[in-house]
Amino acid sequence: MGTALVYHEDMTAARLLWDDPECAIETPERLAVAMELLRQRGLEQRCLQLAAREASEAELGLVHSPEYVALVRGTEALGVGALQELSAQFDAVYFHPSTYHCARLAAGAALQLVDAVLTGAAQNGLALVRPPGHHSQRAAANGFCVFNNVALAAEHAKQRHGLRRILVVDWDIHHGQGTQYIFEDDPRVLYFSWHRYEHGRFWPYLRESDADAVGRGHGRGFTVNLPWNQVGMGNADYVAAFLHVLLPLAFEFDPELVLVSAGFDSAIGDPEGQMQATPECFAHLTQLLLALAGGRVCAVLEGGYHLESLAESVCMTIQTLLGDQPPPLPGPMVPCQSALESIQSVRAAQAPHWASFQHPATVPMLSPSYSSSEGRLLPLLPAEPVYKAAAPSCPDPLHAHPLAPVCPAVVLTAPDAAVHLCPRGIRQKGAAPWEEAEAEAWARPHEVLAQGEALAALRKVLRLVDGILDGQVNSGIAATPAPALSATLDVTIRRSLFLGVQRLLCVAVGQLDRPLDLADDGRTLWLSIRDKQAATLSTFHVSMPLPGATGGFLSCILGLVLPLAYGFQPDLLVVVLGPVHGLQDPYAALLVTLLRVPARGRILALVEESKPQLAGILARMLHGEAPPSLGPFSKASSEFAQALVYLRGQLELHWKMLQVAAPPSVASPGS
Ligand code: X5A
Ligand code: ZN
């Protein structure tokens, strides 16, 4: 099952016929350049190409009034003067004799995409359309939008496919007030939008675009607005918004389908948005969304007016839908003060409606004994990172990429039992294992690795480490006899550092100790998730208790693991599931799926060979399959929530992606 690309050249027909500086940016070239770059990059050819069809009038009636549909139909026969006169009755709208045809194709494309994904003809997809849709209302055109393509797609998914939970992610830089109005009392459609707001001084200047608009009636809590109050928001701000606002809600909601109002006026260079996020950011946002709804993600173009930025961002989105790993994010991963204020305000506004945002009871203050169960807290390193920055800041970020993304490939070294559980295409491929003598030399301090079986496994693991680091494969899974797991991990880390890995992230779940002689020099970030209490033994050695509930696990991944991974930007991630790791398979699957994004697929997973089922599911995740749903949401225990708050307090000065609130800008005297 692949990626659908829905398009029709007729949608380039509509254009502005008179002078109107506000509407002049919405041009036919927007679609033409995006399609051209998709062809040039060989991406169109990799998609299931569908020719857009027109939505029927009955379908338009799912959202729009018959009178409004008739009014738009009538524009087909109007002359330029009458078109201009009618256009002036709406805010930032122009009609062209081809508008009705184009707008029906745009709506039809969105419906077709949803049908393709919900019938299984495609796994995910993108509809490249114009006019855009998210400002359009039941009986009004607005902001270049005529019919609300995404709202029609959501209503169609509800009524024709019987879906009960649909997530709409509106990453266009304008508030999709049309979509908000259509679903404001509907709990089956969760609408999330971030938008340039500037405290109400940016178009469309609406009070109801602010964070305190949360929906009405049964729909309370199903409208989520994240207003940006400054221009210049960048990759760190967008990723922080996903980790700390959208994704906690989205996983708690557990959607059956994700619709994206994919406007790219939120990208760098756009004259409307004035933001700084680079095209790579949309690869990351897309891949994060692919962890939801069994990967059923349907993106529909909205705005995007800087032609080159638009085309690059469309390519990044399609490439990620196709399964390619995202390029690294350029720039420092430090969200700005204003973004953190916005994140804080929307979390506060939504807290009554979502358990993920409800604070743990803060009554019992963390006692020193609680925080230092693993020993005295070592002083944290200074806030200045000691490791090399991931990418030198580039004077022209739009042209910094593209690195050809490495296609995912998985090597599995595990017993046959696990291999049978793997998707076709993943087999015990790869070069021969290491020579025995060489592996023995690396194994030397560890007696447990001297035996036949453990040594045989180690020879394969070392081959895999080399294969990942020289770029032959993207990721792999290795299984070892349980008693040899710690020692194998130790050798894996030493070999990786020997080969020059600059930043190695190790996520160790279960009873596994950090190798004692591992230098705390910033090259390795060690994160334990185990049956102990929270502790920060240094900036690069963090320990977290095992979360029991769904909510605890999600806040552990989204609130701690991913922010650390995004801040650290690892060259290689080693994830180990050790003794009594306590994670059910769907949890392990989600952990690996989400870690793939900041690790850009460069993952080596180590498991015990007695767990073939686990090895199999992890292989499918590394191959790009979507994780299963976690099932009913259960709230994190207050001990666990407090442990997270404690760790955030210890670490956020150094790891700025952990922040969920703005630090006070001025210290008030005496406080
Ligand atoms: C879809 C979209 C923007 C309208 C801006 C009017 N519309 N100033 O990006
Ligand atoms: Zn827009």
List its traits.
671 residues, alpha/beta, Arginase, Chain A, 8-stranded parallel beta sheet, 8-stranded mixed beta sheet, 20 helices, 35% helix, elongated, binds N-(4-aminobutyl)acetamide, binds zinc ion
Can you walk me through this structure?
- This protein is of the alpha/beta class and 671 residues long.
- The chain contains 20 helices and 16 strands.
- An eight-stranded parallel sheet has the order 2-1-3-8-7-4-5-6, with helices on both faces.
- β13 (535-538) and β14 (541-545) form a beta hairpin.
- The protein has two domains: 3-121 and 131-327 and 338-358, Histone deacetylase domain (Arginase, Chain A), CATH 3.40.800; 406-658, Histone deacetylase domain (Arginase, Chain A), CATH 3.40.800.
- Helix content is 35%, strand content 13%.
- The chain has helices at 29-40, 57-60, 66-74, 80-87, 99-118, 149-159, 177-183, 235-253, 279-289, 307-321, 337-350, 368-371, 416-420, 436-443, 452-469, 485-498, 550-568, 585-599, 612-622, 638-651, and strands at residues 2-7, 48-51, 122-127, 166-170, 189-196, 223-228, 257-262, 297-301, 410-413, 475-480, 504-509, 524-530, 535-538, 541-545, 572-577, 603-608.
- Bound molecules: N-(4-aminobutyl)acetamide and zinc ion (ZN).
- Zinc ion (ZN) binds at residues 172-174, 263, 265, 302-303.
- Residues 172-174, 263, 265, 302-303 line the site of zinc ion.
